[in-house]
Q: What sequence folds into this?
């Protein structure tokens, strides 16, 4: 049997980044920059007012107080967006709004609160020192400076900065495109009635959500019966547009194992079917279909999601350069006794109480118990050689957040 670490290496080796691409800001969010961003303008772009008020010459109102206000005629009105900027002549004020350009000659802004708000003549009740309430050009970003670096993840604030600098596109490592195929003649799409012997198809919606959660994108989520021709047709249709194919089901030891059958049981089409020493998720496979990487997961829903967590998610995130490729590992004290099969690394669903530093197993180990996985917040990672863990033991968990 192959170890978990070995299969992680094999899967990681298959999944590689797409070439950098220049995309619109909305599509860049969450991805990693593949360029250094150099400011082509300064921020602020020009000297502008930090307040709604009046642009003045500071020395002309230096003596202003509530008892001895200074009155000045209001010569101009400068709302934000005014593009012709009149000079402030001595002995006058310009009414000015936040973000509007400071007129030549003005050396300070008096906030409207320190005035009577006059539009023909303004009464100023307080002094404003030179430079007060003026945001200077370049005090945030100097034109020509490098403000963002290759490898930085595009956050909402990064999008904001890029836009403020006039960029409508960024060069990033694109999302990997993942095709998710479910197999099984018993499967029916949720929303349709079930006939005897049928079940609802849950792996592809679940895997699609996990793919997106990992930062990748979903090409399509076709579900096929256990007929090789149908499976092959879906591959023909979508594989060329995909960077990774993930299948679920059809790889165990029974008959009608469509994924195994499609690639030949001897693995002669570049797909290796292996047993990995883990529970759940023992039957695994990986390889390439017409050049496109493929990872074949088992069918049981818990095995599917655990396998995705262990093998696919970290490889996808690492290839896209995204942070936190691995889930955070934490040590916690087990509240109960757990048993684990010999020779297999077990990933038990658990509930971690991070404040108390404790963890409890959640639900039975069987790989069809999706209900417990849905309300678990961690995986207990139990080593291959461990068969029994007494309560109070320190265990390692993967924090699913
Ligand atoms: P298999 O590996 O194809 O034999 O599937 C193992 C178990 O998982 C069987 O009980 C299947 O019915 C179930 N299963 C396989 N694929 C899906 C799916 N897409 N949605 C829900 N259950 C599935
Ligand atoms: Mg099946």
A:
């Amino acid at each position: 049997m192959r170890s978990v670490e070995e299969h992680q290496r094999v899967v990681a080796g298959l999944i590689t980044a797409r070439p950098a691409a220049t995309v619109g800001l909305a599509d860049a969010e969450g991805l990693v920059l593949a360029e250094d961003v150099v400011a082509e303008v300064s921020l602020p772009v020009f000297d502008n007012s930090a307040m709604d008020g009046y642009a003045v010459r500071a020395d002309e109102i230096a003596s202003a107080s509530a008892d001895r206000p200074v009155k000045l005629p209001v010569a101009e009105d400068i709302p934000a967006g005014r593009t012709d900027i009149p000079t402030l002549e001595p002995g006058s004020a310009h009414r000015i709004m936040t973000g509007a350009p400071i007129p030549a000659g003005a050396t300070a802004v008096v906030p409207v609160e320190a005035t009577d708000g006059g539009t023909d003549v303004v009464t100023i009740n307080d002094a404003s020192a030179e430079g007060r309430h003026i945001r200077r050009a370049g005090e945030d970003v100097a034109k020509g400076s490098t403000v963002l670096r290759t490898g930085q993840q595009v956050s909402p604030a990064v999008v904001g900065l890029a836009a403020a600098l006039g960029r409508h596109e960024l060069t990033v490592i694109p999302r990997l495109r993942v095709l998710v195929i479910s197999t099984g003649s018993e499967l029916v799409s949720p929303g349709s009635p079930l006939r005897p012997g049928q079940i609802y198809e849950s792996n592809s919606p679940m895997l699609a959500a996990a793919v997106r959660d990992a930062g990748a994108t979903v090409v399509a989520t076709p579900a096929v019966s256990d007929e090789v021709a149908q499976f092959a047709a879906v591959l023909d249709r979508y594989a060329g547009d995909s960077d990774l194919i993930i299948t679920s089901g059809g790889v165990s030891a029974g008959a009608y194992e469509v994924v195994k059958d499609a690639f030949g049981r001897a693995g002669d089409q570049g797909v290796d079917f292996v047993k990995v020493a883990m529970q759940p998720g023992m039957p695994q496979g990986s390889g390439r279909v017409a050049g496109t990487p493929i990872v074949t997961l088992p069918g049981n829903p818990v095995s599917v999601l655990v396998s995705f967590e262990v093998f696919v998610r970290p490889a996808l995130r690492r290839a896209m350069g995204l942070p936190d490729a691995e889930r955070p590992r934490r040590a916690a004290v087990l509240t109960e006794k757990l048993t684990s099969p010999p020779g297999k690394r077990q990933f038990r669903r658990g509930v971690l109480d991070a404040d108390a530093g404790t963890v409890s197993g959640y639900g039975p180990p069987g790989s069809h118990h999706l209900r417990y996985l849905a309300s678990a917040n961690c995986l207990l990672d139990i080593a291959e050689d461990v068969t029994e863990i007494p309560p109070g033991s320190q265990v390692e968990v993967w924090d699913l957040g």
Observations:
- The chain has a mean pLDDT of 96.
- Residues 16 and 190 are 33 Å apart (CA to CA).
